Amino acid sequence: VTAMAEVEDETKGLLAGGVDYITKPVSAPIVKARVRNHMQLKLHQDHLEELVQSRTRELALTQDVTIHGLASLAETRDNETGRHLLRTQHYVRILALQLKDHPNFRDYLDETTVEMLYKSAPLHDIGKVGVPDAILLKPGRLDEDEFEEMKQHACHGRDAILRAAELMGDHAITSFLRYALEITYTHHERWDGTGYPQGLAGSDIPISGRLMAVADVYDALISRRVYKPPLTHERAVEIMRQSRGSHFDPDALDAFLEIEDRFRGIAMQYADQDEPGDSLC
Questions:
Q1: At CB < 8 A and 24+ separation, what contacts does 134-142 make?
Q2: How far apart, in Å, do the first and last CA atoms of the chain sit?
Q3: Do both 48 and 173 map to the same domain?
Q4: Could you tell me what percentage of the chain is helix, strand and coil, using 3-state DSSP and rounding each to the nearest 5?
Q5: For the whole prediction, is pTM greater than 0.85?
Q6: Are residues 99 and 151 in the same domain?
Q7: DSSP 3-state assignment of 175?
Q8: In the listed set 58, 77, 96, which residue is the last one of a domain according to the structure?
């Protein structure tokens, strides 16, 4: 309420954050009516915000359920994975958080990116749905031709996610599917360029793929396979240490070594039902 009734004064008041402008002399009924209107508007605004937040939570939950549903398609066809998806998802998150303030990673690993990596990590092997059962379920090591076929799962995964992105439209490239695409297609690349499917090397490998490589290999080493027993945590760490700068990004591997006990903790917490957690000791 003010005695200044010029248009300029009213404009300044509204630009300063005022929601209404009443000049003197005032009418009590009018003031009460306008206050009541603003209070009702605030209530409607608060209700709308609650609806938006509720809808956002529903969409996030739907997204999570969809991701895990799709990822489980690959998991159910591969009897070796067990709770691999859950473990690697958590490995990726703690590794990303460990690197968040590293000068080579801080421009990429903000809070949103870390969350997107966590959400999309379970899709890293979705391409296995395109691998023949005779190869995927073979009770032993693959021969050279079979391994070449198995390597195609990175391309199958990329193609599946690209099709999903096309259906979702332009927004998809900025959503979790962008990270899922990188992880699926590049988590088997190696720092020295000897990986697949593209033979990328060094910083040409997306950060998401580099982090997933550490998580995926660690879990493979400590897990039972038809052709090998599970390795102890200590032995797995030593093997990975020896692959610093060849298989793994040196900085990512160093971060892993700094928090290796937390990796062990996740592995024990989400151990396969037929593998007691103390087998990691």
A1: 136/77, 136/78, 137/77, 137/78, 137/79, 139/226, 140/226, 140/227, 141/227
A2: 73
A3: no
A4: 65, 0, 30
A5: no
A6: yes
A7: coil
A8: 77
Residue carrying the six token digits 């992880």:
183
Instruction: Tell me, yes or no, whether 222 and 154 share the same domain.
Output: yes
Among 224, 221, 222, 218, smallest CA distance to 259 is for 218
pLDDT of residue 174: 56
Domain with 241 in it: 80-280
% residues pLDDT > 90 (the chain): 52
pLDDT value at 1 more than 50: no
CA distance 213 to 204: 14
d(CA 213, CA 78): 19
Do 121 and 245 lie in one domain? The reply is yes
Helix, coil or strand: residue 277: helix
Place of tokens 């096309």: 166
Q: Indicate left, alpha or beta for 229 from its phi (over 0: left) and psi (-120 to 50: alpha).
A: beta
Q: How many domains does the chain have?
A: 2
CA distance 136 to 151: 11
